[in-house]
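Worked example 2:
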Amino acid sequence: MKVAARDSWPCNCGKKLYTAPEILEATDASPAFDPFKLDVWAIGIILFVLLTGMPPWSVDDGPTPDDARFQRITRGELHVQLDLWQIQLSAPAVEMLQALLRGDPIKRPTVAEVRDFRFISGGH
């Protein structure tokens, strides 16, 4: 299943905190979105808040493409951002969070693949 691009939506949906990169970068020519990959992104945000006690960016404004935090996290440098915030998480937690918060939705795990991460399967 795919979700049509932004212009065909009747309204804005969801909280800004959970906005995935593919939604931020959407144009009239954008392909349809995979709602399951959007959900995986949202799971990543929820897990981030649960593990760190804080959101990765502004709750009110959500992520923006020019936000250095957003850029680091989506390009695979979550560990750098966590170091800047002096947050220590287990390696399996960081590994899973980074996968869930990949900027490229094609490279994000599926919901079924999420269960195979060491963080979930007991390797934390």
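The chain has seven helices and no strands. Residues 44 and 105 are 12 Å apart (CA to CA).
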